From TrEMBL:
One of its GO terms (molecular function) is acyltransferase activity, transferring groups other than amino-acyl groups. It holds the Pfam family Acetyltransf_1. Residues 139-279 form the N-acetyltransferase domain. InterPro entries: Acyl_CoA_acyltransferase, DUF4081, GNAT_dom, UCP21603_acetyltransf. This is Unannotated protein. SUPFAM superfamilies: Acyl-CoA N-acyltransferases (Nat) (SSF55729).
């Protein structure tokens, strides 16, 4: 098994075919490689770095290395080869996110080289919906306007802090986080229910590929939780996301039982299980 950098001469068709075997789980990697796969940009113009694991000309894994380290599903011998290669380099990513069956054994082999993790999200159900939601969507949920960035930003910071355990303001005072949110707003992929200048609900479609659009950043103002605001809001986002892709996914921590109940009510079903190691 050989782990190496993806290069321009590699077969786009082979990489695409491998990734699309599970376009839901691999949505992040597909989205990061899309402009190379579509021959719009060379690899040197993409953010992050891409590795592949191969043996006798057969691709066994694709790995994205950037702000996050994201491996595709792969077997034990591939994990061993990937861990051996990664252990030779300093950690560059703030998290490892991927299929549970890959992340745990990969981290077991890397932690002696990379040091302690800040937190481990050991089980994160990956959910999917391909049809209209089972609850009535909130008709007040709409695309956020660029001029509303400052209104949405505090809610986004609160959501991230609740979910990840640290504030995004700790890194460059939140400039990168704010820039990414602004980008999603301009792309028409940030949505909210805003009432009298207050954000009641918000979420974004963070990833869009032909096979899957992934919802992220779901947040309801604390004083309206438990009233059905979240389920109606998520239902509205599902309808918007289904206009972008053939399926809609999201993943959630297994201990967030209230969120899991919301997503089940909306009509999401289990597709797989992810895990995350946070630094």
């Amino acid at each position: 098994m050989f782990v190496r950098s993806l290069v321009e001469d590699d077969s786009r068709d082979s990489i695409r075919e491998f990734l699309e075997r599970d376009c839901v789980t691999n949505a992040f990697v597909i989205s990061r490689l899309a402009r190379w796969l579509d021959r719009e940009l060379p690899l040197s113009r993409l953010s992050g770095e891409f590795w592949i694991a191969e043996s006798a000309g057969t691709i066994h894994a694709v790995i994205y290395i950037g702000a996050n380290l994201v491996p595709t599903a792969c077997e034990e011998r591939v994990i061993d080869a990937l861990a051996a290669r990664l252990a030779q380099e300093p950690r560059r990513s703030s998290s490892i996110v991927g299929p549970e069956a890959v992340v745990h054994p990969l981290w077991d082999q890397l932690k002696s080289a990379w040091g302690n993790a800040r937190a481990i999200r050991s089980e994160q159900p990956l959910l999917i919906i391909r049809s209209a939601p089972l609850v009535v969507p909130d008709s007040e949920v709409r695309a956020v306007e660029p001029v509303e960035l400052s209104l949405i930003f505090p809610a986004a910071v609160e959501m991230f802090s609740e979910e990840v355990g640290i504030s995004p303001l700790n890194v460059d005072n939140g400039a990168s986080f704010r820039s990414r949110l602004a980008e999603l707003i301009v792309q028409g992929r940030a949505f909210a229910h805003i009432e009298d200048g207050c954000v009641l609900f918000k979420a974004e479609v963070g990833i869009v590929t032909p096979g899957a659009a992934q919802i992220q950043g779901v947040w309801t103002t604390p004083d309206r939780r438990g009233e059905g605001v979240a389920s109606a809001g998520v239902a509205a986002i599902v309808l918007e996301a289904l206009r972008m892709s053939e399926s809609v996914s999201l993943y959630v921590n297994d201990f967030n039982t209230s969120a899991l109940r919301v997503y089940e009510k909306v009509g999401f079903t289990r597709h797989g299980t992810l895990a995350s190691v946070l630094f």
